[in-house]
Amino acid sequence: MAKKSVKGFTIHFLPYIEIEDLDSSQRVKKLLSIILKNKIIILQGRLRVEEETRLIEDTMALVGNVKGFKGVELAVMTPGNEKRRIMSKLKHGIARALIGEQDALTIIGPASIITDMRRDPKKLEIFMGK
Amino acid sequence: MVIRILKNFFKRLFEGMFQRKKHISLGFYGPPNAGKTSLANRICKDWTGEEIGKVSKVPHETRNVQFKEKVEINFKGKALTFKLVDTPGIATKVDYEDFMKFKLKKKDAQKRAKEATHGIIESIKWLDDADAVIVVIDATQNPYSQVNITIIGNLIARKIPVLIVGNKVDLRKADLKRVEAAFPEYEVVGISAKYGKNMEEFYESVFKLAKKAR
Q1: What is the pLDDT of residue A127?
Q2: Which residue among B113, B124, B181 sits closest to A53, beta carbon to beta carbon?
Q3: A106 in B contact zone (CB under 8 Å)
Q4: Is residue B11 part of a domain?
Q5: For position A41, which CATH number holds?
Q6: The dihedral sign for the CA sequence B187, B190, B193, B197
Q7: Which of A65-69, A87-91, B16-20, B196-200 shows the lowest per-residue confidence on average (mean pLDDT)?
Q8: How confident is the model at residue A4 (pLDDT cuts 50, 70, 90)?
Q9: Which pTM does this prediction carry?
Q10: Residues of the domain holding A43
Q11: Which region holds residue B50: left if phi is over 0, alpha if psi is between -120 and 50, else beta?
Q12: Nearest chain B Cα distance for residue A61, angstroms
């Protein structure tokens, strides 16, 4: 099989404020509309778990119905608390209580551009092209 | 008459508070090819004499939710009856070209891909029905995939008790410790559904899981 190279891609950085006031359905719709333009989203913060599930459902509804769309690759990076000192953990906990998980980072991209995302507690690797 | 009505009311209230649900719905969730149907088949064969579904190396072999009603396990003097719900593997992408690598023709591969996407949607909808869930993870693969994290996060949000099973421990590449490290707050059992390895520990964990079920 011939190797496919990635010819170019766009990263769309989405601040959390852009989705903060949207309901779950609108959030997922907004993200998918960007992904269908073949852009990789880096979202400040993260979706709620039920929204992540909704994203998977809506993605599956599009696969096979949108030409060339195979789905998405998704990864959420959240800062771990294990290595923090007690004061740092406390400050972090208060910040989270006030503003939610805006210190997380969500990366979503079309599976036609991102072939794999491999994460472990320390890093996330994004693979593109075949 | 009034006394009888009051008596029945308090009896039902008492039973509702203290009596656990007799037959639970036990869901099998996880990514494609982790071994959910292999495990479901092993359990069904052990306790009912017949399997629940087909297995193969081609991902998304299970593309519809499959049930086995009233599976009764009798283990070390304890009994448990449940509805076994085997679900299609959840994924964020489905590419028919992946199926063609397993020698499927293009038309068959496209049909399989379409069925797989419908299966994933059905699988997610069936989360509402589960009283407890066994999340089956391939112990030879990276456990930190977002699919695993999303499935488990969803179960926790719905307050559904979870047992994590690291399958395929018979393979050299299997790393159960990595699965345990990925999900330290959950009970993790390593098994080989294909060869029936460590099923005793698995059944003990299923009994513990059933006790937590709503």
Answers
A1: 92
A2: B124
A3: no
A4: no
A5: 3.30.950
A6: negative
A7: B16-20
A8: low
A9: 0.87
A10: 10-128
A11: beta
A12: 7
SS3 readout for A75-124: EEECCCCCCCCHHHHHHHHHHHHHHCCCCCEEEEEECCCEEEEEECCCCE
Contact B113 A117 (CB under 8 A): no
| ipTM value | 0.85
Do A111 and B124 make contact, defined as CB atoms within 8 angstroms?
no
- Pairing, β B66-75 against β B78-86: antiparallel
Contact A71 B154 (CB under 8 A): no
Q: Number of folded domains in chain A?
A: 1
Residue A3 in domain: no
Measuring CA to CA, how many Å separate B122 from each of A70, A120, B89, B192? Answer: 18, 29, 10, 27
Q: What pLDDT, on a 0 to 100 scale, did the predictor assign at position B178?
A: 96
From chain B, the residues in CB contact with A127 under 8 A are none
Write the residue in B117, B154, B181 that is nearest to A50 by C-beta: B154
* pLDDT per position as a tens digit, B168-212: 999 999 999 999 999 999 999 999 999 999 999 999 999 999 999
For residue B20, pLDDT over 60 is answered with no
